[in-house]
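so the lab meeting is tmrw and i was supposed to have these ready like two days ago... anyway. pasting both below. for each one the top line is the aa sequence and the line under it is the structure tokens. i havent really looked at them closely yet so no promises
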Amino acid sequence: MRGLAWPDDHPGSFPKREPAEDAAERPLANGDVYRGGFAGGAPQGRGKYVWADGCMYEGEWRRGKAAGKGRFSWPSGATFEGEFRSGRMEGFGTFTGPDGATYRGAWVADRKHGYGAKHYANGDYYEGTWRRNAQEGQWRNGNQYIGEWRAGVISGRGVLIWANGNRYDGLWEGGVPKGSGVFTWPDGSCYVGTWSRAGGVCGTFYPPAAAASSALSSNRKRSSSVDAAPAPPSSTLLRARCSPALQRTRSSRFWFSPAESKKPGQMISKGHRNYELMLNLQLGISYSVGKTASLPMRELTLPDFDPREKFWTRFPPEGSKVTPPHQSPEFRWKDYCPMVFRHLRKLFSVDPADYMLAICGNDALRELSSPGKSGSIFYLTQDDRFMIKTVKKSEVKVLIRMLHSYYQHVCRYHNTLVTKFYGVHCVKPIGGQKVRFIVMGNLFCSEYRIHRRFDLKGSSHGRTTDKVDGEIDETTTLKDLDLDFVFHLQRYWYKKLLEQITRDCEFLESEGIMDYSLLVGIHFRDDNSATKMGLPSAIASPKFSGKRESFQGGGGFFEYDIDRVLDGQKPMSRLGANMPARAEHASRRSEFEPLVLTGGGFLTPNQSSGSHEVILFFGIIDILQDYDISKKLEHAYKSLQVDPNSISAVDPKLYSRRFQDFIGRVFIEDDG
């Protein structure tokens, strides 16, 4: 639902005058038309607004925003008739989809929320409580389900809680578990595994932490099969009472075939030099996630952040009371601050079963060579969601030292651009060296193909790729001096970006961190690619600009999101992900002159070279380097050879200021 607010800076805006109602028709420069009451330079009273793309709102306005009773219609045939508040669907209303399905009930911030009834096109019906567009229902026998439905049957992600305290949290299909999930008993024991429709399951049983050894023996039969677990309610029982589906078409609309998209990295298979290390990592993470999942969720305390809050576990090949048998040599596994990272995974909406399945499932990890000078090895899961990086002991110390501040920062700022950390671990093979890992989110996990990627620091010394043009492809990480674009952001996103960059840099500066980067991924789109991906052609055309976004009233749905979001096909834009922008070619004043050393920036828009409509992904990475003695020596040594302002190794305060200045030159507000 687009935010219904009159744009003060719209090309069709009229000079403000003394409040006075009139009902004149007012065509706007972009093709939109408004007819109705007008006061103080904005719609007031009753009015009708017709967008050039066919959308229409007719109803009550207050101070330039839809407020009161009204009707909104989409070109697809979908309509909403009901109450609006501050430009959004809020209150009571009826939504009719293009397929004839109707929902009549409560709305909050454009979402079904509260009590409502939905008639599905296939004849299914649900009446009850809704929460953020999903049904929440409870059977008469006390069983409760919270999650997704399809065609009247539990399907998708959801949690079923039995009246006796048993609980299943995972994926469903046709009313039964199918896919990854966690089954938890009231005593705290749990089974983490993968279910099939035929009733088969493979996974690992974890006893309660308080009585690991005795519980393992007494429950061994229960852990060997899911037969002992209560059978999930049949699809028949799930049909009428706790309700039909929120229809979601999750079909991917990629404009390229999988074969065309080159996945970076080398598959780690048997015989690979790091094959056993990967097995150790998978075994360890499976153990860690299962162990913490068996414990009740509780509030964090200061001791949870203690650097000494780490646990060693021995993994003999034959297995033990708490570890499974395996094929690799014996190793030891260390977990750092496990309860904190459990909370972080929950905060970042990472499902435990999905997390474990992505890293520890049958699909092997892919190994990537490091694009930097650290020598770190990167591992990527097959679904591209998670990245595992080998790190130095000093980096682990930095992360654990600042973990409490980091946790507070990401809790306070949900739009933070700093790296999302999901876990810190260490593997120690018998007779071998310790290998420390950090698990984090992959910025470029998206349905969009990443055509270009840049690692940007705001410095210039050594900041160019060592590859010749013929060797550069989509997996090449380019650097500051390789950048030949400036990015035009819509006003709302531009302001949000500068605000969040300031907050994140203040946090990193306070922790003494420097040498971090802004990792930027660019997806280029044109009329042809956008149409094939199911995006409205209006958005792919050069007419698209930040002025259209300004009508959203600040942060509402973008026009090209509306229908796709209603269909559940595409995630919403958020800061740093799925962000629409315009990339304009820029010309350098000097081939070797860095952006940050010129008054207005050495990248100046080049009108003759044109621009591209793009989707941007970006975030701040490499945030575990403090300004230690080695960096101070590096700064002193390089300062004798080159301009001190051009090198990366500078004190955190200067680094933060230079980095923010750099961002303000590469990203600019769209005035189109």
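ok protien two:
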Amino acid sequence: MPSRRWAVTVLASALAAGCAQSAESERPVPIPSEAFSLRADGAVPWADEPIESVHPQPAAPTVAPGTAPCEAAQLTGSLDRWWQPRSTEQAGDAPLGGQLIGEVVVRNTSATDCTLQGSAAVRLFSKGAEVPVGRLSSAGEEAHRRVVPVPAGSSALLRVAWSGPFCAAVDPPFELRVRLPAEGGEVLAPVRPREHPACSGNAESILSVGAFTTPTPTDPQAAVRSPLWDLRAAVSGPATARPGGRINYTVTLTNPTAEAVSLLPCPGYLQEVRASANGVVTASTSQLYRLNCRPVSEIAAHDELRFDMVAEVPAKAAAGETVQITWSVQTPQNLPSEHLVGILTVTVTT
């Protein structure tokens, strides 16, 4: 274990304001004073700071007040790629739990502006026949209330997570049929990639669907290698938790290089919580947060830094179910999806 060489920095009030009300200023969050100092054990305290994106936010697309909801005849859809969350301890390209994550791109090809609010019912098809998979919504109440403007010629995104095992005797190509909110009809979205979750039992496969969001324009930084590229992440925490209870866990970021790695500007992290019973997903949520780097600005060479984290067990999770927390760093710069990922598995008890 390398000696602790905490690079403790008392950041200026401008940084505090910048982190609390950054590009995501539409949702400012009060930050408690204890978030600005390391704990007695050297850990960085958790700060409840949800964000919409780690990318600079350009002017959002707008439509006139009272614009009607989108109808299927105005839209086309497609899912162009899947990606796989991976544990840093896994070798090769084996999907984590057989889960694939993608985004349905819904394009307004008409000459009329429209809006999309909340989530959508999504069904999976192969060669015109529906594929039997379970369906869940991972969108929270706030996401369901969000109205996404879709001007003529622009797009909206719908995040989809396909969890295995998938053992149906069907072949690609697949198609998603997206039932729009507000009785807008059904949009057909071809699935371009041919992958599907692996078969590893008889449990039901699940499609978990988020809410409609506005796409993030391409950020020039996306082609730049992230300064956090060489860091390593590990997650530790309790073995059990109660339904609806709070899970306090720890993420350790290790710097194996001979140079200090700056944490500024504060990166984001995605926290995904998935409850399952006998391989069947019963609840799934995800949220992007800002990493609290107020009390520390860098990780010294050959050192590590521990961050306190908090998650909640889904209230409807039953005793004996498994809750998997997947934690991953998000930066505006290029950082492969398998980098800086940690996983914690917890058993639900009464």
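from a quick look at the 2nd one: The domain at 72-213 is CATH 2.60.40 (Immunoglobulin-like). The mean pLDDT is 85. will dig more after coffe
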